[in-house]
Design brief:
Layout: E1 3-7, H1 13-23, E2 27-31, H2 42-47, E3 55-58, E4 61-64, H3 66-76, H4 90-113, H5 125-147, H6 160-169, H7 185-195, H8 198-203, H9 205-209
Parallel strand pairs: 1-2
Antiparallel strand pairs: 1-3, 3-4
């Protein structure tokens, strides 16, 4: 079985691709875009009417939402050990952190990248963007505090949560007023270790060459 990953750089589909690499699962990239003025694959839009990425397809189904895809893939390929087992204490914090990334941190990014989605008028977009920047600092501080002295985000074991954390740090842009990752030393420490993994080196070549790309 080969997964089909609807994919574009600078999107959460890059994080899902890293997970597929770590799982050593066969996959095919289906080129797409976040530019709504350009055509996108019909199947992508059929699965996710929002038109966003990532979307993943397999022999018996398809789904969207990066956190949901992460949970699905890691449970489907549990032998890779990218997720805590169901009966371990770490399972709860694993699920909590992925949902927090998706629901809180990513929402703050959306406020800064797409303020028009959160404002009724053009005049109010700057206020939405400003609130998003403050919210980014708040949410990343929560994660930094959660990590504490842990070796990895959840403790001693590397997991998909660490990949997701790294992916989100690559979205920080100083020209938009985002906080610098160095403000969150525990987050930075984890992200730096994730960056060394061969899967990340392969997928994030463009970002490594130019973090502002």
């Amino acid at each position: 079985m080969t997964y089909k990953l609807y994919y574009a750089k600078k999107t959460a589909s890059m994080g899902i691709r890293v997970i597929l690499e770590e799982l050593q699962a066969p996959y095919q990239l289906i080129d797409s875009t976040v530019d709504r003025s350009l055509p996108r694959p019909a199947k992508q839009v059929a699965v996710n009417p929002n038109g966003w990425l990532p979307v993943i397809e397999w022999d018996s189904g398809a789904m969207y939402e990066a956190a949901a895809i992460t949970i699905f893939l890691c449970d489907r390929h549990s032998e890779a050990g990218l997720a805590p087992k169901f009966d371990t204490p770490e399972r709860g914090i694993y699920l909590q952190t992925l949902v927090y990334f998706s629901n809180s941190v990513q929402n703050a990014f959306q406020l800064t990248y797409y303020p028009d989605r959160f404002a009724d008028t053009k005049e109010h977009e700057a206020s939405a963007q400003s609130r998003g920047i403050r919210r980014l600092r708040e949410t990343w501080q929560v994660i930094d505090d959660q990590i504490g002295s842990n070796h990895w985000t959840l403790g001693e074991q590397f997991s998909a949560v660490d990949i997701y954390l790294f992916m989100l740090t690559t979205w920080l842009r100083q020209y938009l007023g985002h906080p610098d990752v160095n403000e969150f030393p525990n987050v930075k420490r984890i992200a730096d270790k994730v960056l060394l993994r061969p899967s990340v080196q392969a997928v994030y070549q463009s970002w490594i060459a130019n973090p502002e790309y």
